[in-house]
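Quick one:
INPUT:
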């Protein structure tokens, strides 16, 4: 197969748009679709064909890439695309869909003779825009060469976790990684909130642990977003983080694992969303520590 592919990207939100842009810049023929067309239209400047329907987007495509909100959304959109899917096309499923949904998606792929790749990514807006995501992938060895140009366009590294996408080994690893990210994010918010409550300068806390065993760059990055009121545009939105937290909890239950911290974290994210922070960066979970004030846009430094 030529390195120049026809690639269809279904879903052009924060991650999908960035991935699509890098696919186009790598020289591939790009078709894009999004339920809200206005979110896909800027990609026309990159040479993308903006389709009106999923079926129009995938017609004749070598590779279909799905980057949607959740598993049910992916299944619904792929069913709309089904009449135009080419048997034998590769499907890179990069939505964080959860294990229960993955079973249905893999079944759909078998029914439509698609080469199914479980291919979630690690990273947020900035690495996505730079083409520096880490792709976690599982799929048939004999088809990996055919999707490599797309994986190389969107990621700095691809980690192969298995030979059968239906087994979900990549999605399982993604859920474990996300459980750590969400736990760290909620911990940042609680530490800043406690500092506020105790009258401690949050910068004093950050300075106190700087360079030591308890320090990490992620703490400083997320703290700055809160302290400097830079929660929009989000790298990863509160609403999406809550969805992922609930997928993590469901996966744990499916395998007999109780995740108390994840459950508490999901509730914090829910409260932050209810306070009006759903579309802000997940660092806005900070606000879940407070009763909803008259103006929830106050920064931590103003509290």
């Amino acid at each position: 197969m030529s390195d120049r592919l026809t690639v269809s990207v279904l879903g052009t939100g924060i991650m999908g748009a960035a991935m699509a842009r890098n696919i186009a810049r790598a020289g591939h023929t790009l078709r894009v679709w999004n339920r809200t067309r206005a979110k896909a239209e800027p990609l026309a400047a990159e040479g993308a064909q903006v389709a009106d329907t999923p079926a129009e987007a995938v017609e004749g495509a070598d590779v279909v890439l799905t980057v949607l909100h959740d598993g049910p959304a992916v299944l619904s959109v792929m069913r709309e695309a089904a009449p135009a899917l080419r048997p034998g096309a590769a499907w890179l499923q990069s939505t964080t869909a959860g294990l229960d949904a993955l079973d249905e998606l893999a079944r759909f792929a078998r029914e439509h003779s698609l080469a199914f790749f479980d291919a979630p990514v690690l990273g947020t807006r900035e690495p996505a825009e730079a083409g520096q995501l880490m792709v976690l992938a599982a799929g048939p060895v004999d088809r990996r060469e055919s999707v490599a140009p797309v994986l190389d366009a969107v990621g700095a590294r691809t980690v192969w976790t298995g030979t059968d996408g239906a087994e979900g080994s990549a999605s399982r690893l993604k859920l474990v990684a996300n459980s750590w990210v969400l736990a760290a994010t909620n911990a940042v918010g609680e530490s800043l909130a406690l500092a506020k409550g105790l009258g401690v300068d949050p910068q004093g806390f950050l300075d106190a642990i700087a360079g030591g065993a308890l320090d990490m760059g992620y703490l400083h990055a997320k703290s700055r977003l809160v302290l400097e009121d830079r929660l929009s545009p989000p790298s990863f939105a509160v609403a999406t983080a809550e969805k992922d937290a609930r997928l993590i909890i469901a996966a744990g239950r499916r395998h007999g694992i109780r995740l108390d911290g994840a459950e508490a974290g999901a509730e914090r994210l829910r409260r932050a969303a209810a306070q009006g922070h759903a579309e802000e960066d997940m660092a806005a979970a900070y606000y879940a520590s407070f009763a909803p004030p008259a103006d929830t846009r106050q920064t931590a430094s103003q509290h």
